[in-house]
Amino acid sequence: MAERSFAKEVQKLRQGDGEVFTGEGILGITKALLENGVGYVGGYQGSPISHLMDVLADAQEILGELGVHFEASANEATATAMLAASVHYPIRGAVTYKSVVGTNVASDALSNLASGGVTGGALIIVGEDFGEGSSIMQERTYAFAMKSQVWMLDPRPNLPCITKAVGDGFELSEVSNTPVMLQVGIRSCHVHGHFTAKDNKRPSMTVSDALENPRRDLNRIVLPPATYLHEQEKLTKRLPAAQNFIVEREINERFGRKDAKVGLILQGGAYNTVIRALNRLGLADLYGDTEVDMMVLNCIYPLVDEQLMDFCEGKDAVLVIEEGHPNYIEQQIATMLYKRGKTVKLEGKGVLPMGGEYTGQVMVDSLGAFFAQYAPSMLPVAKTATNEEPVAIPDLSKTLPGRPPGFCTGCPERPIFAATKLVEEELGEHHISSDIGCHLFSIMPPFDLGATTMGYGLGPASAAAFHNENKKGRRSISFVGDGGFWHNGLTSSVGNAVFNKSDNVIVIVDNFYSSATGGQDILSSRAVNKTKQTQNSIVEACKGMGVKWVRQVDRTYDVTKMRDTLKEALTTEEEGPKVIVASSECMLNKQRRVKPEMAKAAKEGKRVVRPRFGVDEDVCTGDHACMRLSGCPSLSVKDTGDPLRDDPVAAIDQTCVGCGNCGEVADAAVLCPSFYQAEIVSNPTEGEKRRAARASKIISWLQSRRDAKRVAFA
Amino acid sequence: MNMQAKPIIARRSPGPDGEKVITLAALAVGGQGGGVLTNWIVDVAEANGYNAQSTSVAGVAQRTGATIYYVEMCRDTGRQPVFALSPAVGDVDILMASELMEGGRAIMRGFVTPGRTTLIASTHRIPAVSEKIAPGDGRANGPEVIKAMDIAADHVVAFDMETVAKKAGSVISSSLLGALAGSGALPFSRESYEEVIRKSGRGVEASLRAFGEAYEIAKGNKPAPVFEEAPAKPVPVLNVPEKLKAKWATLESRLTALPLEVQEMAGLGLKKVVDYQDVDYGSEYLDKLDEIVALDKAPYEMSVSAAKYIARALCYDDILRVADIKTRASRFERVKGEVVVKDDQVLMLTEYFHPRFEEFTTTLPKGLGTWVQGKKGFEAWYTKRFDKGRRIRTDSLRGFLMLWIVSSLRPMRRKLLRHQSEMAHVAAWFATVKEVARTDPALASEILANYRLIKGYSDTHARGLSKFARVMGALDMLKGRTDAADWMRRLRTAALEDEKGKALDGALATVKSFAG
């Protein structure tokens, strides 16, 4: 089950003609898929498209009624390969994954699919994660569209346009026998808006029908001589068909006065930011009405030469607005203009920054510079003269602490890295290669563990080069999550280490879900799932791959055991990769399940134990050694108010979930005895109450006897 | 002072019949319920006939990290306005920050503009990891951010909304919404906000209480609440049994004989020392203090520092002290309060201990302790069998008695090995203090304050001692200089900056460069 419930959203998928759908962009896309008769859906989770997967995972009933098959694909390559169902059969298929990192994994299948071409519409929803708040490298997925001759839509960021683009995408794909990518930015996926719904449509042909009536066509298979036929089709049939469709169906939109001396050519996704900048420059009103001639490319690949040359005709200057590097669109337009000997000035990167996110301020400054240079008359005078003197605002950059992402309260991965830190204090530093997932947070304080990350499931693979001639010498430690393991790590990391007789240590962080992306179920999830076979053991999988030395740690909070297991792996004589599977449930998902259960049981009078940790203020000396091995949000610092003391002491607040990490760490690292574990028992048994009462009577007798013999100040 | 980069001052232009887009950005720490707050704001706007759009950035980069939510709204005129998807520098009308430093971050990022932005911020602190791991006090400077808020914002509504929410049994999103409603920055009635909370269906009553309280404070009908962050713990009480009243009285009379400026700190020090050991230890404390006072003169700053740090030096952290604290009635009461144990509930309390061979031998009488420490074979055997974590249930009789017996060794503390090494260390330190006090009282005060470096147990204690030694080692280089005291303080502050003492190395190198 995902990190949050989507029950409310699932009901919205049933809305019909004329009803107003209210929700996020990514959910609008999900509804649009059902409205356009999609036959099957797949994909792999990752911000910002996870919610599409999560809501469909909860909507099996509706999908069943429509005969739509939904799968949570093993990875993005599987998802794209799944689109093969649209090669021979007129079935519309859709898959979704996270921008560049997803498309990288999918690119092999994408090339094969694009070569042979498709009959049913094949739509790939790519969630772009660019700029602030992003967690991946800053690259553009656009390159894949050009490379494989796959078309790419980038609609204006409002729900009506985005959902229309789903329908357009399927038709464009069918009319040109080419897969189509629908790129939606992170803020378009998570934008709250409305659109008018239509009835869901059953697919004209379902995947079951296809199975009953199999078809094949040798010409569609990627093998010579057919591959050369495909290339010709791409150039002579598919590209023109796509370009005609884009012009006939007016996929790209034009605003403002066509006879203006300057013009803007922009990606659809940048429309809102551009209009707001024009509004702030006094060149557009808040509804988007403007004099400025704008060509909005809702389809950013392929470009239609005539359409763009017509736009540039008679203009002094044109500015191309495309976010991220390199400037593919600007380069294509430059070639068109040069070949036609045009003299219009082409601006783009240079006036606009070469890279980085095109925020509101960047757009105002760049557009301001462009108009000031090429059409100063259009800019209202008030905008050029800045009469307001900016107030000097104090520089807080040295005061503010950085706040990077980190492990949640009670996270089961924290003790794994505390244990690793303790091992390094004994055996010295090791080369540590990290992966993608929550465990990547180990690279930041307080742990500072991890030198590289090469992609999802590739932690151990990125340590493949390290081979120590000295059998007794230092080994590398590499981490991989359970999500990354099943995604590809099983073969690319573990299988590779076995085959190449690597001596290094692999730690598989098993928190029962693909947690970083929202807690989706995976092969080794312990939850029972109606449509998925879970509870497949990682240890068995590793043994199946030939790993000899495997240890399963079932409670990662046992820091001492975690440390000793890792130390043994680093020092054992045993040959081959040493694999430690460290398993405890993601606390975020566990609390979502456990908290309501405990509350209900307590109300019903059942015996319930609530664990919590605390710190004895008088015993804590304020050195914060425990924090250097924890960083848990609930373990904080506070003033004691005692003039005799200088430093703040440790304190645990009420958000503590009683996981035990701080106590275990203080114990394993022999830090200090100020941690206590409190277990509060609701509805205790009679025996417990009697024993507790008797013990406290004797204890208070002893305490009063002692107080009678000494001066105490407490 | 960095002047805001001089951008083109570009105010949004209003629509044809005067309607304006209102922009609201909310900076929060991931997991604080920023999404709930954003959805409520959109619901309120739409309930009041406004077009509203919100965007957020969900993902792994937001887990407990800084994140941003953005809302734009405009009076519904039948046409759909074009809303921006993210906040722009100098263009934010309302900025909400659910933690003090996130308010500062909004200012640094240019989202708070003089003459335009209403800043609604909770002043409570969620310390970031970097603030918590410094051995000293690494916490960021809150007042500096509050000062910057008044300069940068047009109108500021700032108070501890976390505690307002907690006291009402709710969470910060409710009190933040109340502060927004009360600030008057949005043209919507209080009832329309409350209606949205009622419809959300979870913890409604508590949310409404938190909302109402924050609303009144933001409106100015109620003063901003001042929650003293520190003593949640009950104020300590002095308990002097009958037969010790006389001895205690003599100590108290010696207190009043001290200079006025020193009496308060000396009073606290005396109580701490007597509570730690016994009344005689108290007089030992006052003897040492009198020696320093004799070398001092008004305003007696050195003596106040002595009163504080002599007490700290005498009350070293040994097993007896820990066992004593953990078996006191006042401690059980405090724990019950802290973890909220109601009368019909039973508390199971487990202590986490890891006494090693060193703690075992130093708790033996001096002669026996040194002899056993010499036995390497015994140490290896002991470490193998006994050197492991202990989980002791102090709510059960068996566990309590184990600690009770250990703490009953207190009267014999003076004979134990640990006491000898500690007193030797104190004596050396105290002799240096007295010697320096004759010529440079300011430097002497700093040497007294150096005892702050010695804290913690086992490895931490050892590290503290080594830092103390290295800082004191610089004394010969500094003696006789007019700025000796300042440099000693800088060395100590540097020692407290990081665990390994890298900053201390730098500071020592600087001292060597000019005084070596």
Short recap of the structure:
The complex is a heterodimer of chains A (714) and B (516). By secondary structure, chain A is of the alpha/beta class. In chain A, the strands form 6 sheets. In chain A, strands 3-2-4-5-7-6-12 form a 7-stranded mixed sheet, with helices on both faces.
Question: Could you explain the architecture of this structure?
Answer:
The complex is a heterodimer of chains A (714) and B (516). Chain A has 714 residues and is α/β, with parallel strands linked by helices. Chain A has four domains: 13-248, Thiamin diphosphate (ThDP)-binding fold, Pyr/PP domains (Rossmann fold, 3-Layer(aba) Sandwich), CATH 3.40.50; 253-382, Rossmann fold, CATH 3.40.50.920; 413-589, 3-Layer(aba) Sandwich (Rossmann fold); 603-707, Alpha-Beta Plaits. Chain A contains 24 helices and 26 strands. A seven-stranded mixed β-sheet of chain A has the order 3-2-4-5-7-6-12, with helices on both faces. A six-stranded parallel β-sheet of chain A has the order 17-16-18-19-21-20, sandwiched between helices. Chain A is globular and about 100 Å long. Chain B is 53% helix and 11% strand. In chain B, helix 5 (161-167) crosses helix 8 (204-219) and helix 7 (190-200) packs antiparallel against helix 8. Chain B has 24 helices and ten strands. In chain B, the strands form two sheets. Chain B has a six-stranded mixed β-sheet with strand order 3-4-2-5-6-7, with helices on both faces. In chain B, strands 9-10 form a two-stranded antiparallel sheet. Chain B is an alpha/beta fold and 516 residues long. Chain B folds into four domains: 22-219, Pyruvate-ferredoxin oxidoreductase, PFOR, domain III (Pyruvate-ferredoxin Oxidoreductase, domain 3, 3-Layer(aba) Sandwich), CATH 3.40.920; 245-315; 328-418, no CATH class; 446-516. Classes of the chains: A alpha/beta (714), B alpha/beta (516). The interface between A and B is large, with 143 and 160 residues. Strand 26 (712-713) of chain A pairs antiparallel with strand 8 (238-239) of chain B, so a sheet runs across the interface.
